Structure formats: structure tokens, C-alpha cells
Amino acid sequence: MPLQILEAKLAAQLKALPKDSQRQFLSLYNKSPGKLPFSTIFKTNALPCGSDSPVGAVYPTICLINHSCVPNSHNNWNDNLEHETIHAIRPIEAGEEITIPYDKGGCTCLGCSLPPPELDDSDARRLQIQLLDAAIGDPYRIMSEPREVLRDCYSMLQNLNEEFGGYIGILGARLYYDAFQISIAHGDQARASVFAKRAYESRVLCEGEDSPEAQRVRSLAMKPARHMSFELASRQWRRSKDMVPKSLDTESFEKWLFKLDLPRDLR
């Protein structure tokens, strides 16, 4: 929408608000002050009402939360509640600033202010995470090289944990859901159910139990074969949901889950 049209619409909507609400809006940061103050304040502060949504909203409190490349909280639009939510994704000390990720780096946050050697290591990890994310999302590889893609998921998980100190938030939920889709596409309901459960737990941490996406993933953990991709690629990994091994230690279970050099009978 052209800024001139947005300016006129916002002016009319602001006029209808109580004076306190008008003052709250006008007190928000404006990174491009000028002749169109309402639209530039909105552009500076608006958060999307859902993933990739063309609709955005401004909140008098949430919009005061600063960015961090290593955030301690996650913001999310809840379709059922029709409002934005904020959930802590790691312990927050008393007096510590609440932060969420919405910038592209190069700022003055904790992650961008590391000493040069540590910043170089962080940049290298983030580049590796981007490369692995692209490789995991390649539909051809999911069809033809599923075991290699699942191993990429494991590598990405290690990089995420190192980069974010074990608190990987919504990135973990997305990664586990990717692993779920790889497993279910080749008929493995056992691994798929585990990955969906982990995706659900990560979603609850970031978005709460009332999150529609969390509830959707929870239903897939209980009945993974309901997913539209079930056996879409092949049946080569076919396992029922009750075939999750029960007697493995943590390390062996992770090797089984991500198919990391296990004996053939455990693959």
C-alpha cells in the first residue's frame, strides 16, 4: 500500500481512538521521521499477524521490546485468540531485558557485540545453519537421499544448540517438524511420532499450549500417518508408531532417531 494512502487510513483510525491510545502510538520509535509520521511509525513497529501475513499490527507494550540475535523470548500471532503473544524461551533473570528477534544483525545486541574471535565463530555457525536449512528443504534430496537429509537435521541441531546455548526456541520446532516430514514421507511412523512430539514441546515453549500450530503438531505425534506426506516418497523406512525402541540410552536413542551409523537392525 502506498504510504500516502496508509497515512490517510491511519489518521482516520487514530482519530477514533481515545487520547491515551493516540499518545501511546505517537510515542513509539520512528526510524524515518518526516511528512508521513503515522505510516512511518507503523512501518517501524508493526508485527505481522501470522507467518508471512500481509497484515500487521502495532502494540503499545510489545512494540517496545528490543531485538536480540540471541533472544530470550518469542513473539507469535495466535489465530484462535487473535492477538500477539510473548513467551520466554529460556530463564530470564530479574531485571534482565526481554528481547525478541526481528532484525537482521549488525546491531548492538548481545550476539552482535561478542569479541571478534567469538563473533567470527558465531558468523560461521550461522552461515552453516543457513546452508543446512537450504539442504534440508531440498525436495529432491528428501525423496532420494532421506538418510543424508536426516543427518543434516542432526548437524543443524548441534549448530543451533551451540549458537543459542541450548535454547533454540522456534528454530527447534521447525527443525523437528522438518525431520518429521522426512520420516513420514518414507513411512517411518516411529521416528515421525518422536519428532512430532519434540516439535510440539518446542511450540508449547514458544507459543503456549493454546497455539493452533502446537495442537496440530500434537495430533500428528499421536497419529503421524494422518499427514498428507505419509509414504509419499517411499515405504523403505516403514515402521509402525509402536516400534520406537524402549531400552536405548540417550546417546544410542539419538543415533537411532537420526539414523547415525547404527547396526542394520536398529535403522
From TrEMBL:
Domain of life: Eukaryota
Pfam families: SET
Annotated SET domain residues: 18-103
Name of this protein: SET domain-containing protein
